[in-house]
From TrEMBL:
Keyword Cell wall biogenesis/degradation listed: no
Pfam families reported for this sequence: Acyl-CoA_dh_1, Acyl-CoA_dh_M, Acyl-CoA_dh_N
Gene3D superfamilies according to UniProt: Acyl-CoA dehydrogenase/oxidase, N-terminal domain (1.10.540.10), Butyryl-CoA Dehydrogenase, subunit A, domain 2 (2.40.110.10), Butyryl-CoA Dehydrogenase, subunit A, domain 3 (1.20.140.10)
Recorded family membership: Belongs to the acyl-CoA dehydrogenase family.
Gene Ontology biological process: fatty acid beta-oxidation using acyl-CoA dehydrogenase
Biological source species: Bacterioplanes sanyensis
One function term, GO molecular function aspect: acyl-CoA dehydrogenase activity
Protein name per UniProt: Acyl-CoA dehydrogenase
Length: 407
């Protein structure tokens, strides 16, 4: 395994780091203050569109797409350090058009979409003109087992009829969210993993109702957000089916491999930012006539944070390298491993940084509380820790099949 950054990756690392340093970091605190001071926070402030235009002009756009026709042609391994850099900021992923769930939805449309679907939805998504949502999880069933999904996507003649309720649909609150991908039951009599389909729906389709936005520890993550949506006999053209009836799980697995690399590397960037804030605070604040860094076990906490970040980064890079070499299916265990390790690692380090900051760490004066909420949520997004551990153990035990007892 060779984790050496290619010359192309090194070039983009330098350019992305400089853009974040020079364009994003100087304005982000003021941006967030202005956004949160508004009565209506579900808005796009002009500075975001200005930054997006600058990033596009600088060639720092759609960095996640390995296909040079749509992006800059970076492999997963090459993109990983860029995702880490964007994880240090709440707005950088959108500025570079590399934020969830748009990245995954664009990958789905690029891989499985018809020319008509790509023209209508993929092109404006790639241009950053619209946003999208992904509607999979449901409130009425244990969605950790996706075969439990009860919402339906039934084919009726030349239409598909959507019914059901979805929640934690990320990005649904954004004012530019124009399209969503709905996963629903199409054929309950088919084999277990061939019953569900993915269907594109316009957000303004009759019968689509956003019932509420959902907070995570009181944070709504405006203007993106996570919402609960009701679908009442939503009728869309049959051409809105992605790939074909019953292929929902196939698409989901293709979508979630690279996307987990993105999430996990952003979490490492988030943990790096938390460690940086922790070290600065521990150096500058004094208590009992000593800097905080010299009190209690704070040096051990800092050392452990550094080691845990390095370990997690190496495993993410290995998973990215494997996806590039053998595909997501060949890296299932490694992907699940990082999906457990990265958010738990980030959550622990952010929590320690909050502790070092005292009461301020719990407030909005620092980004730590919002970062903690994000890291904690990602222990459920894309599947809970327990599901991933179950898959890791299943793959591990295949090695010992000869030793397993038989009925």
């Amino acid at each position: 395994m060779d984790f050496q950054h290619s010359a192309k990756a090194q070039d983009y690392i330098q350019r992305v780091r400089a853009f974040i340093r020079d364009e994003i970091e100087p304005i982000e605190e003021d941006y967030l203050r202005e956004l949160h001071s508004r009565e209506n926070k579900w808005v796009v402030l002009p500075i975001i569109e200005e930054l997006k235009a600058k990033a596009k002009a600088a060639g720092l756009w759609n960095l996640f797409f390995p296909n040079e026709e749509h992006g800059v042609g970076l492999s997963n391994l090459e993109y990983a350090p860029l995702a880490e850099l964007t994880g240090r900021s709440f707005i950088a992923p959108e500025v570079f058009n590399c934020n969830a769930p748009d990245t995954g939805n664009m990958e789905v449309l690029e891989k499985y979409g018809t020319p008509e679907q790509q023209e209508q939805w993929l092109k404006p998504l790639m241009a950053g003109e619209i946003r999208s949502a992904f509607c999979m999880t449901e409130p009425g069933v244990a969605s950790s087992d996706a075969t439990n999904m009860q919402a339906t996507a039934m084919v009726e003649g030349d239409e598909i009829v959507l019914n059901g309720r979805k929640w934690w649909s990320t990005g649904i609150g954004h004012p530019n969210c124009k399209v969503g991908i709905f996963m629903g039951l199409t054929n309950p009599d088919a084999p277990r993993h061939q019953q569900h389909s993915m269907v594109l729906f316009p957000m303004d389709a009759p019968g689509v109702t956003i019932e509420r936005m959902l907070p995570v520890f009181g944070h709504y993550d405006e203007p993106y957000g996570h919402g609960e949506i009701r679908f009442d006999n939503v009728r869309v053209p049959a051409g809105n089916m992605i790939a074909g009836p019953g292929r929902g799980f196939e698409i989901a697995q293709g979508r979630l491999g690279p996307g987990r690399i993105h999430h996990c590397m952003r979490l490492i960037g988030m943990a790096e930012k938390a460690l940086e804030l922790m070290c600065i605070r521990a150096s500058e604040r004094t208590a009992f006539r000593k800097p905080l860094v010299n009190l209690g076990g704070n040096r051990d906490i800092i050392a452990n944070a550094r080691m845990n970040i390095e370990q997690a980064r190496l495993l993410v890079l290995k998973a990215a390298w494997m996806i590039d070499k053998v595909g997501a299916a060949g890296a299932m265990s490694e992907i699940s491993q990082i999906k457990v390790i990265a958010p738990n690692m980030a959550q622990e380090i952010i929590d320690a940084a909050m502790q070092i900051h005292g009461g301020g760490g719990l407030s909005d004066d620092f980004p730590l509380a919002a970062m903690f909420a994000g890291a904690r949520a990602l222990r459920l997004a894309d599947g809970p820790d327990e599901v991933h551990r179950g898959l890791i153990a299943k793959i591990e035990m295949i090695k010992y099949k000869a030793h397993m007892a038989h009925d």
